[in-house]
Design a protein that fits this description.
four-stranded antiparallel β-sheet; alpha+beta; 4 helices; eight-stranded mixed β-sheet; single chain; Nuclear Transport Factor 2, Chain: A; globular; about 210 residues
């Protein structure tokens, strides 16, 4: 546990945290790493929204962990919140797709993830040589509605009650917003918006089809 805390604390950016998270999964096991890096009220999708710690509590690590790499990172002006996305790969099963993870910087300077999702793809995405980072504008912050200039409160985790299938989060400075909505059939949409100095622009819009019956 000490090594994971040191790795998280040493990660200056969400991209660095993502890489440390992925490396940790190879060291100690996939779901073990997911549990270590998740916030207490982190959310995953299965396909409906579930509390990550409840979903992962007794889940055994697979023989070989999924591999993943950050390709793009959308970062708030204050650099304390980010949404990362990139390819994943399960070599021994010849499966591949993309992931999307919301990262929040903690009071101790480390990072924890609060939302994790993604999808399988027919075509394998290339492994990026480096992640591209797009930061929200720090200009004209007074124009951001007051209601958006305060980070959302962590979702209340109630044992035995799943999280809502529609949720939103935002950075403390209001320059980064992420939203998800899961339909009854399990299809899902995830959006990320960045402040550009005048308005919010969509930086990421991902739609996941309903699981095949």
């Amino acid at each position: 546990m000490l090594s994971i805390l040191l790795a998280a604390a040493a990660a200056p950016t969400a991209v660095d945290a993502e890489r440390a998270f992925a490396a940790r999964a190879q060291q100690v096991g996939q779901w073990t790493a997911f549990r270590e890096y998740a916030e207490p009220s982190a959310v995953m999708f299965n396909p409906q929204a579930v509390w990550a710690h409840e979903f992962l509590r007794n889940r055994k690590d697979p023989p070989r962990s999924v591999e993943w790499w950050p390709a793009r990172s959308f970062v708030s002006c204050d650099r304390r919140s980010a949404v990362n996305t990139g390819p994943w790969l399960i070599r021994d099963r010849n499966l591949h797709g993309y992931f999307t993870t919301v990262w929040l910087k903690q009071q101790d300077g480390g990072w924890k993830w609060s939302v994790d999702g993604g999808d399988e793809l027919k075509t394998r995405l290339p492994r990026p040589r480096r992640a591209s980072v797009r930061r929200a504008s720090c200009g004209n912050l007074k124009a951001i509605p007051a209601a958006y200039r305060a980070a959302t409160e962590p979702t209340a985790l109630i044992a035995g009650k799943p999280p809502a299938d529609a949720g939103q989060g935002r950075s403390a400075d209001g320059t980064l917003i992420w939203e998800w909505r899961v339909a009854k059939d399990g299809s899902r949409r995830f959006e990320t918006k960045l402040w550009n100095g005048r308005a919010y622009v969509t930086a990421l819009d991902q739609q996941v089809a309903a699981p095949k019956s």
